[in-house]
Amino acid sequence: MLPINGLHHVTSLASDPQVNSDFFTKALGLRRVKKTVNFDAPDVYHLYYGDAAGTPGSVMTYFPFPHIAKGRHGTGEVGETVFAIPRGSLGFWKDRLVGEEATSFGETRLRFAGPDGDQFALVETDDAREGWTGTVDADHAVRGFRGASLRLRDGGATGELLRFMGYEQEATEGNLTRWRVPNGNGADVIDIETLPGTESARQGGGSVHHIAFSTPDRASQDEVRRALLDTGWQVTPPIDRDYFWAIYFRTPGGVLFEVATAEPGFDRDESFAHLGEGLKLPTQHEPLRARLEQHLQPIED
């Protein structure tokens, strides 16, 4: 059993940083826990949203590229990112968001779109995690992720990968197969949606760039990496992302997987009370601060 206990974060592409921030902090009620930049393109923000601390399993992150073309949904991508909400709160969210109800595996979910056509859902769960109560009260606040779906032409090989990572096949309904990691962090469900006749996705605004799984620390991450390498997967060395360490590999269906550590966390360069307020730059980009502060669109809270 590899030391993976569910999702860590989901990273997507957006077009406008202000619209993106407003949607997640005001409409969805998450806390912006970090405002930094893309390591590889520092003239682009990297925005993180989650619970009060940015706990693994709650963090939605975005690269907002101004004027990015809209993505095309299809196979080879994360289809729907699903958030957990408290029992009895779905009516509150139906009044707050424009969406439609759907049922799978005996659960009713509210499906809705993000500003760039991102695909999301809310599902009521018995979840002991605490949500951020910025613009939504504690009885209705999002608790974190429930999980996500993967849209694939053939789900067999990716299912075996999930099994290797510690997930167990739980149920099948039509073209959906549900996988769950036992004793997970609440963000512990992956649904594989098999769509053999569907065209491939094209990344752009509203697309998920990668999905990250959580492991406690660098020692456990190294255990996961060695196991994947020993099985023939091409895995990157650990990369320092300031708030976690990350390894990446491409799955059989084309989805980019990451395994990220829970350490050191988002308070390494900002106090808990002021998470997400200041522009934080990776060390290598700090000399660019003056230019970046002039270039990056200001984000109003």
Write a structural description:
The chain has one domain (7-295): 2,3-Dihydroxybiphenyl 1,2-Dioxygenase, domain 1 (Roll). The N and C termini lie far apart (43 Å). The longest helix has 13 residues, at 218-230. The protein has helices at residues 17-27, 90-96, 156-164, 218-230, 289-295; strands spanning 7-14, 31-37, 45-50, 59-64, 77-86, 99-104, 107-113, 119-125, 144-152, 168-173, 176-180, 189-194, 208-215, 239-240, 244-250, 256-264. The protein has 5 helices and 16 strands. It is an alpha+beta fold and 301 residues long.
List the helices and strands in order. EHEEEEHEEEEHEEEEHEEEH
Tally of contiguous helical segments: 5
The top-level CATH class is: Alpha Beta
Biggest β-sheet, characterized? Answer: 8 strands, mixed
Per CATH, the architecture is Roll
Separation of the first and last Cα atoms? 43 Å
| Total domain modules | 1
Q: What does the radius of gyration come to? A: 18 Å
> Per CATH, what is the topology?
2,3-Dihydroxybiphenyl 1,2-Dioxygenase, domain 1
CATH superfamily heading: 2,3-Dihydroxybiphenyl 1,2-Dioxygenase, domain 1
The percent of residues in helical segments reads 10-25%
How many beta-strand segments?
Answer: 16
Structural class: alpha+beta
- Overall 3D geometry? globular
How much of the sequence is in beta strands? 35-45%
